[in-house]
Amino acid sequence: MSSQTWVQPVITAVATLSGAALGAAGTYLAQRGVWNRQYAARWDEARRIAYSNLLSSCNKLNEAIHLGKVEESDTLMEESLRLSGEATLLMNEQTRASGRDLLNFLWAFYMSHLRRGEEEAPDQFEQYQKARDTFRDAARRELNIN
Rounded to an integer, what distance in angstroms lies between the CA atom of residue 47 and that of residue 57? Predict the structure, then answer.
C-alpha cells in the first residue's frame, strides 16, 4: 500500500473536521454576540421605561404641589417614591444621586408648601427644572442617548 492511498483521505478528513469546528465556533460566537446585544437592549429598555415613568411622576408631582392639590400630591409622592425604588435598582451611581436629589427637592417643596403652608420661593420652578434636568441628563448619558 502506497503512502499516497491513505494520506489523501486523512488530509481530506482533517480539513473537513477543521472546517466544521471553525464553522461551529464562528456560529457560536455570532449567536453569542446577538444574544448579548439583545440582552443589553432589554436592560436599556427597562431603564428607559423606569426613568421615563419616574420623570413623568415627578413632573406631575411638582405641578400638583405648585397648584396646592394636597390629595393628588400625596398620591403622586407615594407613586414617585415607589417608582424611584424600582428605578434605583437599574441606575448607575451618578443617575441614582441625581434622582435622589430630585426627590429630595420635591420632598422639601412638598413639606414646606403643602404641609407647613409656606410661600413658594420665587425661583422654585427654576430650582425644580435644574434638578429635573440634571436627572434627565444623567439618565440620557447612562443610556447613551444624545
Answer: 15
Mean pLDDT of the residues in the chain: 89
Amino acid code (one letter) for 117:
G
The CATH number given to whatever domain includes residue 123 is 1.20.120
Q: How confident is the model at residue 118 (pLDDT cuts 50, 70, 90)?
A: confident
End-to-end CA distance of the chain: 72
Based on the structure, what is the number of domains in the chain? 1
State how far the alpha carbon of 135 is from the alpha carbons of 62, 138, 140, 146, in Å. 15, 5, 9, 14
**Residue 7: what residue type?**
V
| Residue 55 burial (CB count, 10 A) | 19
Please check whether residue 115 is in contact with residue 68, taking contact to mean a CB–CB distance below 8 angstroms: no
Amino acid at 140: R
Residues 6+ apart with CB under 8 A from 106: 58, 61, 62, 65, 77, 80, 128
Tell me the three state secondary structure of residue 62.
helix
